[in-house]
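ok posting inputs for the thymidine-5'-diphosphate job
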Amino acid sequence: MKILVTGGAGFIGSNFIRLLLDKHPDHEIVNFDKLTYAGNLDNLKGIEADPRYQFVHADICDAEAVGAAMAGIDAIVNFAAESHVDRSIGGPADFIQTDIYGTYVLLEAARRHNVGRYIQISTDEVYGSIRDGSFTETDRLQPSSPYSASKAGGDMQAMAYHTTFGVPTIITRSSNNFGPYQYPEKIIPLFITNMMEGKKAPLYGDGANVRDWIYVTDNCEAIDLVLHDGEVGEIYNIGGGNECDNLSITRLILAALHKDEELIERVPDRLGHDFRYSIDCSKVKKLGWAPARSFEDSLRETVDWYVGNRWWWEKIKNGEFAKYYKEQYESGNKS
Ligand code: NAD
Ligand code: TYD
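and the output
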């Protein structure tokens, strides 16, 4: 099977490529990535020389480049996206362009080239916030941020291409991922690396917001299962079953690093901040998936990974990230 993985130089995409190459000796991968600020070929170190792996540096919004990469492709897995809520509050345009228009370009390519499978990687954030209970795949979408609204737009296009043109689309909606190679703008790698540097961890609002955390390889295993055995036209929620509020996560990271609470800095809340995400994952479990990792163990391992891989994140934090972080706290994106 030859698979076009878009956004494969990002956090989840790179972990997914590693998993596919490890698990499926007969699979070939074309990694199609624009290398935005979040794309990083360091995430794929060690596999560039694999004859089953090829890298194409291009934009999913560029129909010609996408068409040129489609030769012999059996399946598309679309991870490529602008993915950070705070950046979408600062500037939604790139989100609308990549997450909606880019998805359309890939769906058109899937249609023209009759691919066997098109997997759209989406998020639980499209459902919006929920106080009690959990969302199922048939619940209505009520996204809150320009990011989640753009992802919902991509999902809608994928569903429409299935209904209208018979493109064999499947959507996965996962909860918050964490693990190695996550850009240090997201809460877990940001807080780990800030604390390692003796800097404060900026906790939004009262720290009571809840996310359901999934270790990245557990999500990648579920995507692999859906790619091979999922039913076309369906949507699968993928959650770790580890709901945790932000203050508790911060304390777990502090404990793992043997630091104290002085490093917590309360900062103004994110605009439109969703209080809680929660998804019901019985559908993907029926397909045969279950998370393999406990939250506490994988969080500790993740902390250890960032402790042992300064070479990976120091370059980022001294580069693009430094400018972003400064602007973030000067821009008034907080309430
Ligand atoms: P990321 O920001 O780490 O990586 C995104 C990748 O997409 C980067 O390599 C970037 O260069 C590439 N990219 C961006 N725009 C592109 C374009 N126009 N053309 C080609 N490549 C482009 O993101 P991530 O955290 O790995 O998330 C991957 C996918 O999973 C996204 O679709 C995201 O919405 C979804 N998702 C993420 C999470 C999470 O917790 N990180 C949770 C649920 C769903
Ligand atoms: P984030 O990692 O940005 O993921 P998402 O917003 O997509 O869920 O944020 C996770 C939670 O952590 C969210 O409730 C916002 C909060 N948060 C902070 O408190 N401080 C921070 O600096 C960041 C980036 C996030």
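notes: DSSP finds twelve helices and twelve strands in the chain. The chain has two domains: 2-177+213-238, 184-211+244-274+295-330.
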